[in-house]
C-alpha cells in the first residue's frame, strides 16, 4: 500500500512549533503593541471578523499558526469534500459566492472564495505564528499574548509578546484532532490515521478498512473508499440522526430554518423524521439507530449535528459497507467489537472528530469553559466576554453562526473604537515604556 502521502503530512507537521523538539530552536524575542484588535486564527471566522472591522475602518491583526489561510480546509480535509450546506448559508459577510459556483461548492472552490475574500478586504494574516498564551493584565488593562513564530529556516523561531485592547478568538471548534485510546491499539500492524490525514481512498484499494465514527466525515469517507474499490466498514457506537441532504427540492437545513419561523421545534422535528423515513427509509434496519429526541432538539441540547446523507446509506443497504457496533479492543490484525465479533482489517481511519484548543492557551473564566473550551453562554450570547474579549465561530452553527458573530463583534468594537481617546493611547505608551 502506498502511504507516501502520509509522509508529506508528517513533513508539514515538522513546521508546527508545538511539535518541534526544543533543542532545534534558536529563539529571539520582542514585544509589539497593536492598536486595533488581535484575531487568533485565519480560518473563515478570523477572515470574516477582520473584513467586518475593515468595513468600519478598524485595522486588525490576524495571528495564524499555519502557513496559509483556512488551514483546516486546505491541509486537513479530504479531496472530495464539498460544503455540506448550500452556498447562500455559508457565505461570509459583504461578499457572496460567485454566481457560477454550484449550490454545494467543492473545497477547492471554497478555498478560492476565501482567498479572494482576503484579497478584496486586503487582509494579510501573520502566518506561522502560534498563540501560546493570552491573559488580561489588570494592572494596565490590556491583553498580553505570548506567541512563537517559526522563521524561514525551520530551526529559527521568534517569541513575540503582543499587547492589545481587544482580543478576538477565532481559533475554531475543530482546532485539534480527537484520537481515542483503545486497548491493544499499539499492537495493530496496519496504519491508523485520523480523517485529518485522509485525502482519498486511492492508497486503500482492495483493503479492508475500518472507519471509526459516523459523523458526516466518517460516512462520506466510507463512500469514497467504496469508489476506490476498498472494502470499508463503519463503527456506529451511538444513536444518530441521518437526514437526506435535500427534501422537497431544497436543502434540509434551509427547509428546517424556514419551518422554524412558523412552527415549534418538536413539530419541525416530526416533519423532518417523516420525510426522512419516506425518502431514505428506516435507518434502524441498517444498524443506525435514531436518538429518542428529534434532530433539531438534539442539536440544541447537545450540539450534535445530524448527518446529511450523500449516498452512503445506499452502499450500506447493498452491503458494500458493513456496520459494526463499538470497538472493544485491537489485536495485531483484527478488531474485537463490543458484541464479541472479531474481524480482520488492514487499516483503520479514525473519524472521531475534533476539539477546540482554547483551554491550552487562553486564560479566561467567563466566556469559555476551562474544561473543554466550549462557550459558556448560550447562543446568541456567546460572542462577547469581559475586558475586550470576543469570540467568533463557537456557536456550533457552522459558517452561518460565524457571519452573525463577526458582524456583532465588529459593531461592538466600533462603538469603543469611536470612543477611544488619548487616555487609551497614554496607557499604551505606558505599556510600551515598561518594556
Ligand atoms: C470536514 C468538515 C466539513 C465541514 N463542512 C462545513 C459546511 O459545509 N458548512 C459549515 O458551515 N461548516 C462546515 N464545517 C465546520 C467548519 O469548522 C467551519 O466551516 C469553518 O472551518 C469554521 O471556521 P473557523 O474559522 O471558525 O475555524 P477553522 O476553519 O478551524 O480556523 C481556525 C484557524 O485558527 C488557527 N489556530 C488554532 N489555534 C491557533 C493558535 N493557538 N494560534 C494561532 N492560530 C491558531 C487554525 O490553524 C485555523 O487555521 C466543516 C468542518 C469539517 C471538519
TrEMBL record:
An example molecular function term from Gene Ontology annotations: indole-3-pyruvate monooxygenase activity
Cofactor: FAD
Gene3D superfamilies according to UniProt: FAD/NAD(P)-binding domain
Keyword annotations from UniProtKB, A to Z: Auxin biosynthesis, FAD, Flavoprotein, Monooxygenase, NADP, Oxidoreductase
Residue ranges of coiled coil: none
Catalytic activities: indole-3-pyruvate + NADPH + O2 + H(+) = (indol-3-yl)acetate + CO2 + NADP(+) + H2O
UniProt cross-references to Pfam families, sorted A to Z: FMO-like
Record GO biological process: auxin biosynthetic process
Entry EC no(s): 1.-.-.-
Pathway(s): Plant hormone metabolism; auxin biosynthesis
Entry similarity comment: Belongs to the FMO family.
Protein name: Flavin-containing monooxygenase
